[in-house]
Amino acid sequence: MAEAAIEQRAQSVFLEPARGEIFDRNGAPLNAPSWTPAVAVFPTLCADQELSENILTQLGIKNPGDHKPYVATCDPEKLENVKNAVGLENFLAVGIIPVNTKMRYGSGSIARHVVGYLADMAENRGVAGIELAADELLTRKKPRRLTAYADGSGERIPWLSFHVVESSSETTGVYLTIDKKIQAVLEATLAGTKRPSAGVVLEVATGDVVAMASTPGFDQNSLADYLQQPDSPFLNRAVQAYTPGSVFKLVTVACALEERLTRPGEVFSCDGKASIGSTTIGCSKAGGHGRISLEEAFAQSCNVTFIELGRRCGARRLLSYAARLGLGKKTELGLPDEQAGCLPDPTSLYLGDLANISIGQGAITVTPLQIAAITATIAAGGIYHEPRLISRWVDEKGHAIPYTEQKEGVRVLSEATAIWLQGAMSLAVQPGRTGAAAFIPVLGCAGKTGSAETGKVGENGEKVLHSWFSGYAPSDQPRYAACIFVEEGGYGGSAAAPAFKELMGAILNER
Fold first, then answer.
1. pLDDT tens readout for residues 278-312
2. Three-class secondary structure of residue 279 per DSSP
3. Is residue 4 one of the residues assigned to a domain?
4. Which of 50, 181, 184, 214 is deepest in the core (most CB within 10 A)?
5. CA 132 to each of CA 92, 117, 190: distance values in angstroms, whole numbers, following the listed order
6. For position 50, which CATH number holds?
């Protein structure tokens, strides 16, 4: 009875968020929490109101005015000076206790668009990213707290004083498939593009997301500062849908090969333009490629050839292959802001529409994540692995509980078609081809560029293009597939391809 009575008069404050961490695959916290000096204030235990106000004023802390206990961070040097001047005993006498409190997001926080953020630290509610997707699990953690005990008259009980109750477990939280080191490389690479951009790196053998980033970024501790900033810093471009440009040619040629509507080595004729009724679409090479093989048409991104392949496939068949390869629907990552992209109704398309879609223009949109998954499928010999981001949850007792089971891969392309695509993508990064700037010496790579029209025209009168490159490396035994997207970055070969080379070169050389 006595213990129960004491507990009823206990007052507590949390010294850390009542929330589990968000870890990478190796157990490194992606939110990089850090401990910072603070004071815990218990207003009802104050024996000298004037002294209490004096201390708080010197520390630069504004009293909220109610009688609820609270924690406030303060400058470490100020805290030390005031504590030495006033004396620790006087601090305790007015219900002010120097403590360390955990900041959920430290300066080294990484993968911020993936991790997400909270509506408010006090409210402890996730509103974006994994913070929202796994909110119910994350809030199960019992946090570290400071408890003070008072007697019946409200005076502090000296012999009980202040008691720290430790958190349930430092390993409690959600574990992602992200690799923090690869994530850091990707973020540095995207920052170098100097444009709004996105990137996704997948493990070819499993489909696991090892890195996902978007720029510009934001500070999770200062969200209000970014609300009016240009280029939508809160937008996770890795899961937003954009016109794909020529990276969609992966789908077009895959459909044509699978349906035996073309064959390896077939020769086409390109005079620089394709006429479809009253519509004329230019080729990537103004004067035309002349007679060109299927392989070179892919490597040089010949629009005329791919418009012909699209005509042979037909809208219904082409779009069914796009769906088979994961387009037009969300993945199972669980990110709240992921878009499905758009696959149009084939019955609504005219021949001109089909021609545009065949080269990745017009009424079709995809996400960088989806294109990375298609690329990983080709690298895996035609086996599609559903992308995965959350691997497990570790409870308060340290028990690991699978969150998303790793699914068996599904064959969506024949091995023969996948092998042809691997060869064509390897050719596309050779000198004189569209993806030459992506080539990685020694280890080798394979990929495809994309330059997607936005409908905008720049000040110089030229079309404004989204820049894409999606590829894998090493070329012989592919380990990672990656897609780089640079918003309004120009041609795929000039912006996204060099970024891919920088990214993959750094990842593979480190390993």
1. 889 999 888 999 999 999 999 999 999 999 999 99
2. strand
3. no
4. 214
5. 38, 8, 25
6. 3.90.1310
